Amino acid sequence: MKVDREEQDDARRERIARAAFELFARSGLEATSAQDIARAAFVSRTNLYRYYPSKMHMLLAHFEKAVQASRDDAVERLSRGANPQQVWDKVTGRMADLGVRYRHLVGAVGHAVLSARHEGGRTDHAGQPPGEGVRTALTLVALVEPVLIAMRDRGALRDGVNTHLLGTLLVDACLLALLHGGHRDQREVLRDWQDRFSLLLHGALVPDAAQERACEGGAGPDTPLKTRA
């Protein structure tokens, strides 16, 4: 009985987050009311706040689920022996596409993640509760880190490189580029990301790997993990 109730709660929680995101994507965060979300998710406003205390919680919940799905796909591809560069291209390509398609929501997610990390988990100026933005940041790092670990295992990273810290820096670079880049399309996002990644990864890659990536054509916008020597 208890398991059934938990499953129902999980299903309702997911339904609310999905309905909220669809409304946010169409009308924006501010223009969407709690009543709009409750109606779309077929729950009362009381039940809505029982599962999520704010619209930001709903947005981050859906975002985290989408990121987790991308991570699962990346990990599966890596476990089958896929080239880390190809996996990275797919991950960043999808992130860039979503960043442009939902650019009116990027600010809310980006500020929640960066502010929560900066504030050390305290409530930020937008009322974001402790832990939520940090959890989303960790979810993003967990998406990036398996690719870095695969690169390390193939000897492409220098000994002693902290893949978690490097992943955090790459995630921050992604978010800052989306927040301040003013990109018009996915190609512009990837070009901007590549410039930032080149600087961050240059010291982490072993010299031979950095040189090889430069020779492979690291200047191309469709290969954001490749670096210029």
TrEMBL record:
Signal peptide range: none
All residue ranges annotated as the HTH tetR-type domain in the record: 10-70
SUPFAM superfamilies registered for this protein in UniProt: Homeodomain-like (SSF46689)
Gene Ontology molecular functions: DNA-binding transcription factor activity; transcription cis-regulatory region binding
Keywords: DNA-binding, Transcription, Transcription regulation
InterPro entries per the UniProt record, alphabetical: Homeodomain-like_sf, HTH-type_TetR-like_transc_reg, HTH_TetR, TetR_C_44
Highest taxon, organism lineage: Bacteria
Residues within the DNA-binding region(s): 33-52
Entry keyword Transcription regulation: yes
Matching PANTHER family: HTH-TYPE TRANSCRIPTIONAL REGULATOR BETI (PTHR30055:SF234), HTH-TYPE TRANSCRIPTIONAL REGULATOR RUTR (PTHR30055)
Protein name: AcrR family transcriptional regulator
Organism field: Deinococcus budaensis
Higher taxonomy: Bacteria, Thermotogati, Deinococcota, Deinococci, Deinococcales
